[in-house]
Amino acid sequence: MHMKSFMQWLHLRSLILCCTLIVFMPMPVLSIIHGSAFPTPDTLTGDLPPVILNRKAPYIVAQDIIVPYGKSVAIESGSVFLFAPKTSLIINGQLRASGSSDRAVVFTSLRDNNYNRSAKDGAQPQDWQGIMLSKDASGSTLRFCAILYAAEGLVSATRYIELASCLFLHTRPDALSIEGVRQTTGNMPCEYSLTISDQALSTVPLTKLDDPLKTKRALVRSGGITLLISGALGGGLAAFTIYQGMHDKSALALTQEQKTGYYLGAGVGALGFAWGTVFTIWSFTF
């Protein structure tokens, strides 16, 4: 009797185990499939994070994506961006898109079925706007990048950028614009780099980019601070001397010539303080 009960319990346990396996076994399999063959894409809009890593799935750009003013964004090699119609990559800070010869960074249309398996219609030229760099994007670099199906290609308001082995396909023939001057791109990788010492818009040797306004900014700022401090100290000392001479009975009386000199010193000091403040503030605007 006990043996029969034991066998019944064993059969029941085996049945429960089989049912559990049938129900839950597909889950890890589906997990593996979705993690490799069908990864879920991320959607990007607005300001970009400091680092964008390469994923197995492409990034979908639903609205304009932006490199914010004063910020730096790095894109890892192999990253793919699928842009919805009329969207753009707007660069107001500094972009570092670092592709490689075997893992390019790709900017293309959402309808590009080479990168988007769910795309029903094939991509067409002018599907999305393109890459737009403002004057504040100096120092941005794009290496081994592919820009596909963009209406405007790459438009830069600053000449101080670097392009290394960048390919423009399925777009206008002059897909590269630097400070309003269109450059013919063709179907071959483009090379462009310009620093403060290079004053041509043609291809130049790849060099380390430098801030073209760094020296001017430093001179204006240091001069402004010096003028501000000197004016404050000199004017303040002159004003204090005048005040002491007028209100302190124990102090020696000032002659008219001395008063005139101190008044003049106080005025010059105030003027130096004012101009020093203006120059210092101005140095932070460029």
Characterization of this structure:
With 286 residues, the chain is α/β, with parallel strands linked by helices. The protein has four helices and 16 strands. It has a 16-stranded mixed β-sheet that branches. A hairpin with a 2-residue loop joins strand 14 and strand 15. Helix 3 runs antiparallel to helix 4. The protein is elongated, with a radius of gyration of 33 Å. About 16% of the residues have low confidence.
According to DSSP, the number of beta strands is 16
Distance between the termini: 94 Å
**Total helix count?**
4
Structural class: alpha/beta
How can the largest sheet be summarized?
A: 16 strands, mixed
Helical fraction: 25-40%
Strand content: 25-35%
Unreliable stretches = 6-16, 18-38, 199-211
Question: Average pLDDT value?
Answer: 79
Work out the radius of gyration: 33 Å
Order of helices and strands: HHEEEEEEEEEEEEEEEEHH
| Form type | elongated
Topology overview:
Layout: H1 2-24, H2 26-36, E1 42-47, E2 51-52, E3 59-67, E4 72-75, E5 80-83, E6 88-91, E7 94-98, E8 105-109, E9 128-133, E10 141-143, E11 145-148, E12 150-156, E13 162-169, E14 176-178, E15 181-183, E16 190-193, H3 214-247, H4 256-282
Parallel strand pairs: 1-3, 2-4, 3-5, 3-6, 4-7, 5-8, 6-9, 7-10, 8-11, 9-12, 10-13, 11-13, 12-14
Antiparallel strand pairs: 13-16, 14-15
Helix pairs in contact: 3-4
Structure, briefly:
The chain has 286 residues and is of the alpha/beta class.
Features:
286 residues; alpha/beta; 16-stranded mixed β-sheet; 16 strands; 33% helix; elongated
